[in-house]
Each structure stands twice: as structure tokens, then as C-alpha cells.
From TrEMBL:
CBS domain ranges (all copies): 361-419
CDD domains: CBS_pair_Mg_transporter
Entry keyword Nucleotide-binding: no
Key word Thylakoid present: no
Organism: Gordonia hankookensis
Lineage of producing organism: Bacteria, Bacillati, Actinomycetota, Actinomycetes, Mycobacteriales
SUPFAM superfamilies: CBS-domain pair (SSF54631), MgtE N-terminal domain-like (SSF158791), PRC-barrel domain (SSF50346)
UniProt keyword list: CBS domain
Protein name per Swiss-Prot or TrEMBL: Magnesium transporter
């Protein structure tokens, strides 16, 4: 299939990136553009490519040999695995430039003269020197009232004014196109993409996410980014997002804040939401009590297998947490009544739906104490080949459960999300390609 020399950047997002032998390297997630002096066409430096490991790297446009409807082909299967890092004067087309406001002076579009319009796409093309530049801009006037969506117009670059680094740094930029990019993405992948953006743009996008979505994304960010993003939210919004977070994640975040600031937020939270968070904060973060979630799947012995599996099927429950159901005497809210034992997911799947959970109870499985150390928790999981385990106090009340993902998060270095191992694998060569900005 013939390669194209002109394309709109939004069409590139999601395309497979292939090596010369057809091996898959990743997928295009954005385009890196150098914003130059007013009047000069922005130069397209390269592609932001997401690997199967979810890391985003930079691939220079000079490495691109073909852009086709289904894939982008490179002239090499060796790429640098350094995380994408923007330099001054560079911007991400999808993440930063789209939704910005500009003005156009196209004589064929007199109705747009003197009117602020929104950038909805960028047209790029390859020049005779093999460089790629931004040649056209798709713009659309903002909607007013209940008017039907405005018509999109494609304007030559030299008729566009206001697309500069200064303008991109001004507050109030729209986020519609950026949010479209995140639709269907896992929260961890959205968090990964947000980390690449300047703080101003990241805060704009975060403000536009609904509370549940932002809570999920916040939980996947490194601690420093969590506290910084929370600090830029209005107080009421910050409280709403904390209430939407899992209690253990909210406790971890509040534990990073000064005591007075954390207490101020806790006081504004709904008491039903803040109480489990306060209980978790009483435990040291490097103990089972500090690692546990206070909201595992808990049922009574008289609950049917069908009811229990319905709880397990909840998409908000992680696979690790769904592997084990805890059976207690009422009340079922933590700290519960007497802990009776657990029911393994595999055992539940083998039972008739009408049977009760009390009939397949595993009452012999050892449990953890809230004061158990990280080493003790690690040994527990290794000994019993589990990915989730109960935390029970001296009186026999279930306090919560530790899942293996919480343990790994504590065992790994604090900055593990930011400092991925530089294991190049079969497609990598750290010395082969310079990071974004080199040669711009």
C-alpha cells in the first residue's frame, strides 16, 4: 500500500509502529512538534510511541520510512527505550496543541476574521528535504448556547496566528481533544500520559475528569505527583476526589501531606468516608495494617454462592482482591464481627449457585496481624501461594486485606513509576537514538 506524505496527526494516534521486518514496536500516541518563532512552520520532530510495557519513547521522524492507513514503518528495529522527555520549545500535538485558541486571516473565511477558534487537528507533510512540518490547521469556532456543532475549516499554516509557546502556557485551554485520547484507556496509562505533560496542561485535564476517573488516575501516579496535583484542585474538589479513592490509597496520599493539611481534608470528608481512612493512618505504612485495604469482599456464612460471585464480578474489584472472599459474623463492615475464614474463588466456581458460602469455608488458612512487618507479609504470600490475605486483630475481628499489588508497591523504590529499568530487550539500543529535541 502506498505511503502518504501528508496526514493529520489525529489519524496517526493508535497506529501500529513496525520495524523494517514487520516486527511490532508499539503504537503511536502523539506527535512531538517544535514550536518556532512566529510565522515559521513548526517542525515535526518525531512520534511519541507507546511500547507494550506502557512506556512512551521518542522516535525521530527521520526513522519513519512509510506512513500507511494501518501502520507506521521505521527504517530500523532498534530504538532508544529512554522515556519521552520534552525540551523547551517542544510540545505534544494531541496533548498540548489541540484545543488551543488561535485566530485566522484566511481571505476565503471572512466569517472567522477576528474570531477566536479552537485547533481540532494539525496537518503535517514531508518536504523535499525529508523534514516533516505542520502545513495546515483544522479549526472550529467555539459553540455558543444550544447551537449545532460548528463547521470545521482547514486553514494553511501561514494564515494561523497565536500558536506559540506563550499562548500554550496561558490558562483556559480546552481539553475536549485530550480527553478523547484517554477514552477506553486504563487509569495507569492515563497517569503515564499525564506525567509527560507540563504542569499547567496536566492540571487542566485533571480538572475536567470526573471524580471517579480522577481518583483512579491519581492512585496510579507517583507520590510527589499525587500531592502536587491534589494541591492544585479546589478544596471541595480535592475532598470529593479523596472520597472517591479506595481508603488505603487515600490514606497513602494523606500520609504524604503535612499533618495539619491532611487533618483539614479529613475533617471536610463525609464521616463514613473518612473513618476507614483515619483507621488506616494509625498503622505504620510498612506494616500489614498500613498496606491493607479496609474494603475487601466480605460476606456472612449464609450468603449464597450466586450472591458472592456477583460481588466478585464487580469490575471495580481488582483480580487480586477477587481471588479471596472473607466470611465473618455481622457486622460485615470493618472491623467486622468474628472472622470465620475465607472462600477461594476457585472453590466458589465449583459450587452450585444455591449453596451457601459457609459450606466451603477455609478456616485453616493463617492470617496476618496488623503489626506484621513487610518481611512477614512477604513470607506469608510466598508460603501460602496467595495474592490476597486477611488481616485480623487479637480479638478475631477482620480489619482488612492485603493484596500483592499493595505489597509490591511498598517493596519497590519510591520512584519506581518514574525510573523503569533500562532493559533494552530485542528492540532496544540506548545509544542508538537521541531523546526528543536532539537535532531540533
Amino acid at each position: 500500500m502506498a505511503s502518504v506524505s501528508k496526514v493529520f496527526v489525529a489519524r496517526l494516534v493508535g497506529l501500529a509502529v513496525l520495524g523494517p521486518d514487520g516486527e511490532s514496536i508499539g503504537r503511536v500516541r502523539d506527535v512531538v512538534v517544535a514550536i518556532r518563532m512566529t510565522g515559521q512552520q513548526p517542525r515535526v520532530l518525531g512520534l511519541a510511541v507507546e511500547l507494550t510495557t506502557r512506556r512512551r519513547i521518542f522516535v525521530p521522524m527521520l526513522r519513519v520510512t512509510a506512513i500507511e492507513p494501518q501502520a507506521v514503518t521505521l527504517n530500523t528495529g532498534t530504538v532508544s527505550l529512554r522515556r519521552l522527555h520534552l525540551r523547551p520549545g517542544e510540545a505534544l500535538a494531541i496533548g498540548q496543541i489541540l484545543d488551543s485558541r488561535v485566530r485566522v486571516d484566511d481571505p476565503d473565511l471572512t466569517d472567522l476574521a477576528g474570531v477566536d477558534v479552537n485547533v481540532v487537528d494539525l496537518g503535517i507533510e514531508r518536504t523535499r528535504t525529508r523534514d516533516w512540518v505542520v502545513s495546515r490547521v483544522a479549526v472550529r469556532p467555539g459553540r455558543k448556547g444550544f447551537r449545532r456543532r460548528s463547521v470545521t475549516n482547514v486553514v494553511e499554516w501561514h494564515h494561523v496566528h497565536g500558536l506559540t509557546q506563550t499562548e500554550l502556557n496561558l490558562p483556559g485551554q480546552g481539553v475536549a481533544q485530550a480527553l478523547m485520547q484517554f477514552e477506553g484507556m486504563r487509569a495507569a496509562d492515563v497517569a503515564n500520559a499525564l506525567r509527560e505533560l507540563p504542569a499547567k496542561r496536566r492540571d487542566e485535564i485533571a480538572a475536567a475528569l470526573d471524580d471517579e476517573r480522577l481518583a483512579d488516575v491519581l492512585q496510579e501516579l507517583p507520590p510527589d505527583d499525587q500531592t502536587d496535583l491534589l494541591a492544585h484542585l479546589e478544596l471541595g474538589r480535592a475532598v470529593d476526589v479523596l472520597e472517591a479513592m479506595d481508603p488505603d490509597d487515600a490514606a497513602d496520599l494523606l500520609g504524604e501531606l503535612p499533618d495539619a493539611e491532611a487533618e483539614s481534608l479529613l475533617e471536610r470528608m463525609d464521616p463514613e468516608e473518612s473513618e476507614p481512612v483515619r483507621r488506616l493512618l494509625t498503622h505504620s505504612p510498612d506494616t500489614a495494617g498500613g498496606l491493607m485495604t479496609s474494603e475487601p469482599i466480605i460476606v456472612t456464612a449464609s450468603t449464597t454462592v450466586a450472591e458472592t460471585l456477583a460481588r466478585v464480578r464487580n469490575p471495580d474489584v481488582t483480580p487480586a482482591a477477587a481471588s479471596l472472599v472473607f466470611v465473618v459474623r455481622p457486622p460485615t463492615a470493618t472491623p467486622t464481627g468474628k472472622y470465620l475464614g475465607c472462600a477461594h474463588l476457585q472453590a466458589l466456581l465449583r459450587e452450585p449457585p444455591a449453596n451457601i458460602v459457609g459450606g466451603i469455608l477455609d478456616s485453616d488458612l493463617a492470617h496476618m496481624r496488623p503489626e506484621d512487618s513487610l518481611e512477614a507479609v512477604t513470607r506469608y504470600f510466598a508460603t501460602y501461594n496467595l495474592v490476597c490475605g486477611p488481616v485480623v486483630d487479637e480479638e478475631g475481628h477482620l480489619l482488612g486485606a492485603v493484596s500483592v499489588d499493595d505489597l509490591l508497591d511498598q517493596l519497590l523504590p519510591r520512584d519506581w513509576r518514574e525510573t523503569e529499568p533500562e532493559d533494552t530487550g530485542p528492540i532496544g539500543d540506548l545509544s542508538g537514538i537521541k531523546p526528543a529535541g536532539a537535532g531540533a
